[in-house]
Inverse folding.
């Protein structure tokens, strides 16, 4: 039986819709009263795990799920050993540098040397400023990164932006984009190579469904 | 003005109660419609930041908050450079090793060598098994750690246990305790040493309030 790891949160609804379009129904995960973390499809051909978005590549890397859906941002941040199969075209957002609208900075290169940048994406942020040859200190945060500049702890943040509403509400503006992100289909490399449980068939169906809706 | 970093989640209610007992009212954070991440006390003498529990020591370490409340588990996991002032006696729980109730393991030493242990507390788990001289692989997860043994990805987990309800619901049992945890009062070392904003007075009040309710 094929197991698919699905991410809690923003991408879940589109994941469920995509899987429904190829005949696999995991819509029970969308029921707000649901407490189950794994469910079987009604046809008995597949199982889904509901996990935190950062944990999806872990389940796929260890082979506990043959397939998974996760944001490109997570793949860039964690560089997991998984096969990256397809861009699913939903969950579009970007990893951006933002500063206080009232600050004088309008691009990353204008930030003060040895300034501070708060981020949940420590690895991506470090690599970006390293490539710009700018020595900044990355302050690792788990949430509410916008508090960094508001409290004065950091000059900038590196965070995911989709509508930009959170930035605006907090008096911040986007000044540079590290990369664009969207949901990606990933696979356990060995299962993919061995085509366990005819994985290739399901992957082809998912690719076609993605092209049909794009 | 003194700034206090408060953790979202399980400890928040008791934090607010403790601060109210010394005359500081941040109860607006408990309003479910609240979206503010920083509020001023009505007396204008203090400010509170509402942040993720793992971020509390970051704000205190960087001096953006002179005081903070955080679980001992976070202090053990992250070893932040903060002054550890007092045990506040609430938020009691323990970091434990748990396995499937149906497994043969009844203590950590019985786990298979080179087995896998899933945890959000990667550092604590690694240190614990290292001290037992047991070579295990720690699988880092962000949430729903109980899925580790359920899916077969790991033989055991290291996770926080308070009532034990989550373990029971998932067919797991606790077999060893790494350490007991509770909420702790922490301070920015330099502010504490310099007694900025008469920090020592507030700390004494908080100590007394804790003793009074203990």
């Amino acid at each position: 039986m094929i197991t698919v790891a699905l991410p809690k949160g923003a991408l879940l609804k589109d994941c469920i819709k995509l899987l429904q379009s190829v005949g696999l129904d995991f819509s029970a995960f969308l029921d707000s009263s649901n407490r189950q973390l794994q469910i079987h499809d009604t046809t008995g051909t597949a199982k889904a795990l509901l996990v935190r978005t950062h944990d999806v590549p872990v389940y796929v890397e260890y082979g506990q799920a043959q397939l998974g859906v996760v944001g490109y941002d997570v793949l860039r941040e964690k560089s997991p050993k998984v096969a990256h199969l397809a861009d699913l075209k939903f969950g579009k957002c970007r990893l951006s540098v933002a500063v206080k609208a009232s600050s004088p900075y309008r691009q990353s290169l204008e930030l003060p040397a040895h300034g501070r940048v708060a981020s949940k994406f420590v690895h991506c942020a470090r690599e970006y400023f390293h490539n710009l040859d700018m020595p900044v200190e990355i302050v690792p945060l788990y949430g509410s990164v916008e508090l960094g500049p508001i409290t004065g702890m950091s000059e900038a943040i590196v965070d995911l932006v989709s509508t930009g509403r959170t930035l605006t509400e907090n008096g911040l503006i986007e000044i540079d984009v590290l990369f664009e992100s969207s949901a990606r289909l990933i696979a356990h490399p060995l299962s993919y190579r061995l085509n366990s449980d005819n994985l290739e068939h399901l992957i082809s169906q998912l690719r076609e469904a993605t092209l049909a809706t794009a």
Chain B has two domains: 2-91+182-213, 93-180.
